[in-house]
Amino acid sequence: MKPELLVLAASPSADVMAQLAQYFECHHLWQQPREQQAAWLAGVAPNVRGVLTTGAIGIKAELLAQLPKVEIVAVNGIGTDAVDLAATRARGVVVTNTPGVLTDDVADLALTLLLAAARRLPALDTFVRNGSWEAGKPIASTRALRGKVCGIYGFGRIGQAIGDRAQAFGMTLQYFQPRAIEGTPVPRADSLLALAEASDYLVVAAPGSPATHHTVNAAVLAALGPQGTLVNIARGSLVDEDAMIAALREHTLGMAALDVFADEPRVPAALRELENVVLTPHIGSLTVETRHAMGQLVVDNLRAHFDGKPLLTPVV
């Protein structure tokens, strides 16, 4: 008999979805009308042994409590800040995620956003489309990257991959995180505030957690300054969004390029109305290749667990 799996979100990979159907008895909560989900869930919950979720959705203690036989929560993504890890640990439920396979695509997007902000690509696209170029209107100069300082907040796999790409554009690097990275030639700032003061571009790549909540605050944004640019591909919770909007409005912060937000997919109208921002809808890992690789790692972790084999990427 196949293990029963509660699927909270679909994978965009058809092959991954086919494998899930092959190896598991899947119950797809995401397919149910919202008003019917509670009753539907009550019918399937007693026999669910595994949960497939995403970094954005996670799993709360209330849902976990409805699943008496659950053994594993497999997260399709890196972040586990939306997973109630205290509840999973108390129940002895193992958690996996998908690190490594999305590093390059997320780092690529970080540099894409940084370049788009530096060269004002969205504004220049509009300039062509609305006829301003043809009408002979003046074009404001943009900024080169070479010689500028790229400060990276969070210097794990993704942060280091961002650094490699930034150096290829002639930028110099600094980083900050509480634990120093051994063996790297990149200098570590004494604090996040010091990193912002030294940076022309501050890229946020740290994990979301209570410890990092709103660490990019008004003081950090002021230190980055009116010529500085904030790039966030990590979690919206790391940035004080109200303080950022105020700084962008008042031009005490030059620009922001954001793939993540505090209350996704709800982006404040005040932020959407600003011209000195570049906004994307949390698509750092959204390529065909990476989303398949992430889904495959989810399947492989689930199969390993139910086959009694070691997990490939457990969250510890």
Automatic annotation (TrEMBL):
Pfam family of the protein (one): 2-Hacid_dh_C
Domain (D-isomer specific 2-hydroxyacid dehydrogenase catalytic): residue spans on this chain: 16-315
Alphabetic keyword roster: NAD, NADP, Oxidoreductase
Superkingdom, taxonomy of origin: Bacteria
Record family assignment: Belongs to the D-isomer specific 2-hydroxyacid dehydrogenase family.
Gene3D superfamilies noted in UniProt: NAD(P)-binding Rossmann-like Domain (3.40.50.720)
Protein name: 2-hydroxyacid dehydrogenase
An example molecular function term from Gene Ontology annotations: NAD binding
Domain D-isomer specific 2-hydroxyacid dehydrogenase NAD-binding positions: 111-284
InterPro entries: D-isomer_2-hydroxyacid_DH (IPR050223), D-isomer_2_OHA_DH_cat_dom (IPR006139), D-isomer_DH_NAD-bd (IPR006140), NAD(P)-bd_dom_sf (IPR036291)
Highest classification ranks of the organism: Bacteria, Pseudomonadati, Pseudomonadota, Betaproteobacteria, Burkholderiales
Any one annotated GO CC term: cytosol
